[in-house]
Specification:
mainly beta, ten-stranded antiparallel sheet
Length: 157
């Protein structure tokens, strides 16, 4: 099977080549700034099409868990690339859910070329701003069964 992105003009593609396009791979997302707690679950899938990495993850805290400043490392040793260099990962959507109250949309920030972190959106003025990092108490005091979900895409090496 030819690796996706390495096809050449005139090449005959096999069924295996075509079936490999947009295949999702399960992985355990690598987070820092999360205390899992007893009974936590952390699942994800990614798909790479040429130099675009699609990701979806779901982290559910267990008993005694908290989100203290969550940062996600891109899967498969990928490095965010492209020009112009981005500060915000606008191809991502993220939400943090206080199981017993509300869901809060988050902005996704490129913390480095291999990690993303999350900013709370604040509506205290005329316009929504995104300047406060998620912490153990922002946007709420995180705990058992609270959820962080991320889905989106980014250009990679």
């Amino acid at each position: 099977m030819t690796t996706l992105g390495n096809f050449v003009i005139g090449q005959v593609l096999t069924a295996a080549d075509m079936n490999a396009i947009a295949t999702w791979t399960s992985f355990t997302p690598s987070f820092s700034g999360v205390t899992a707690g007893t009974g936590a679950s952390n699942t994800g899938q990614y798909c790479e099409l040429n130099k675009i990495l699609f990701i979806r993850t779901k982290y559910v805290l267990g008993t005694g868990g908290s989100f203290t400043a969550p940062t996600l490392t891109l899967p498969a040793s990928k490095v965010a690339t492209g020009s112009p260099t981005q500060s915000y990962a606008s191809g991502f959507q993220a939400v943090i859910v206080d199981l017993f109250a509300n869901a809060y949309p988050l902005s996704v920030n490129l913390a480095s070329t291999t990690t993303i972190n999350f900013l709370v959106q604040t509506a205290s003025g005329t316009y929504v701003t995104q300047n406060t990092a998620v912490s153990a108490t922002v946007p709420f005091t995180s705990g058992t069964s609270d959820i962080l979900e991320i889905m989106g895409w980014i250009q990679v090496n």
